[in-house]
Specification:
Number of helices: 8
Number of strands: 0
Number of domains: 2
Shape: globular
Distance between the termini: 22 Å
Strand content: under 5%
Order of helices and strands: HHHHHHHH
Radius of gyration: 19 Å
Largest sheet: none
Structural class: mainly alpha
Length: 203
């Protein structure tokens, strides 16, 4: 596994743990550090040339934001909303005329040029992912505004991930039933094949 992917995986695990710790203990310093590290990693990957400059700028931006807010819980709300609504937009934008649906693109990279049935199915799944992620983001907003902090944290940092995993697994099983012509893989094999995809090929 490449160092950047390994770091991304570690931060993906550390983020919900550090945020939930901050909510229950009112000590958000670990969460701020994790968010700054994630911002630096993302900025470095997006940049060209001197990658440490945008990475440093990202860290400073997070630090300034943490110092600017009086209640660090407000800062914790932002990243998951960016993830939920950002990913929903990514799926939805690929449904625009003249573009290939994201799940169709993934199916093409994994199994070759799809037939008409696969294209219809994967387009519908792309729309389903967009709606599902939008609903998760809306639930997170509602809990942040109307629920307790502990309820928000449990949903955003635990139940949300479980729901995404369940949706992913459910769609995998449905695909095997609806598209028997598609090459069969185990769920672990499918995840491994997904992990090997070059993210640049999805653009």
């Amino acid at each position: 596994m490449m160092p950047a992917r390994r770091a991304s995986l570690l931060l993906l695990i550390a983020y919900p743990c550090s945020v939930h710790y901050g909510v229950v203990s009112n000590d958000y310093r670990p969460a701020v550090i994790v968010i700054a590290a994630a911002a630096a990693l993302l900025a470095g990957q997006r940049a060209h040339g001197y990658r440490w400059l945008p990475a440093l700028a990202a860290v400073l931006a997070v630090a300034v934001a943490a110092l600017a807010v009086t209640d660090h819980f407000d800062l914790m709300i932002i990243p998951p909303l960016l993830i939920y609504f950002g990913l929903a937009a990514v799926f939805a934008l690929t449904l625009l005329p003249g573009r290939q649906a994201l799940v169709t693109r993934i199916a093409t990279l994994l199994d070759g040029e799809p037939d008409a049935a696969v294209r219809r199915y994967t387009r519908r799944v792309t729309a389903a992912w967009a709606v599902f992620l939008l609903l998760l983001g809306a639930c997170s907003v509602w809990l942040a505004c109307c629920g307790t902090r502990e309820a928000w944290s449990l949903f955003t940092n635990l139940y949300g991930y479980l729901l995404i995993l369940g949706f992913f697994l459910g769609e995998f099983l449905l695909r095997r039933r609806c598209l028997p012509q598609v090459p069969r893989r185990s769920f672990a094999g499918f995840l491994a094949a997904m992990a090997r995809l070059d993210r640049r090929s999805l653009r």
